[in-house]
Amino acid sequence: MKNGTFITFEGPDGAGKTTILSMVAEQLPMAMVTREPGGIDIAEQIRRVILSKENTAMDPRTEALLYAAARRQHLIEKVKPALEEGKVVLCDRFVDSSLAYQGYARGLGIDEVWSINQFAIEKMMPDLTIYFDIEPEAGLERINKNKGREVNRLDLENLEFHQKVREGYHILLDRSPGRIIKLDASGTIEDIFQQTLDIIKSKLTERKPSL
Length: 211
Ligand SMILES: Nc1ncnc2c1ncn2[C@@H]1O[C@H](COP(=O)(O)OP(=O)(O)O)[C@@H](O)[C@H]1O
Ligand SMILES: Cc1cn([C@H]2C[C@H](O)[C@@H](COP(=O)(O)OP(=O)(O)O)O2)c(=O)[nH]c1=O
Description:
55% of the residues lie in helices and 13% in strands. The chain contains eight helices and five strands.
């Protein structure tokens, strides 16, 4: 039985998810931090295949299935056991990324991609999803400024693709207003960090009023 809290961070590339997640983690030492695709050995291996710049021949459905496979393994090996132990799990990306990137931006269809993911996740959905909203130009500019970050196959997509990713997220936001909370990610790191921490703390208090 799950009694932990599953929180996911979503948004276009360069929105600041990873930066804010690591700051939040410092304030919540009991939380387990992880990411997709990856987080455990088998899923990190799949991540390398998906994101390799060499794999330009990858079919969009293959890509969607590989993300779902990595998701399944990560969920079963790492997320589910942590939730069963009552932990707070903070995950950088989850199923909404597949719906926005593969379902909407790649054009496979949000419902189609949702259906293969239902097989992978068996109804294990986040309790809360924080969506970091940013203009794709601004997100990509942040990435370009940061020379240390690896450039992956999806970073090499054109601006139109990244604009569609954002549109995809907006559709998901309309579909799941209770679960997904939108945050304007164009502000300063400190500001976004505080807002994120407030959202998470209020969720944790709502679920466990004694906190
Ligand atoms: N609010 C912000 N303002 C300016 N730069 C930021 C902000 N948040 C993150 N960054 C920088 O932008 C780059 C991408 O951030 P990152 O956290 O990796 O984004 P994501 O995980 O969403 O792709 C990093 O160099 C990071 O330091
Ligand atoms: C989890 C997931 C990620 N992605 C993409 C989003 C990113 O471009 C890439 C993950 O690379 P990553 O370097 O982790 O990007 P970010 O720091 O922006 O989270 O994979 C999908 O297309 N579908 C998915 O289901």
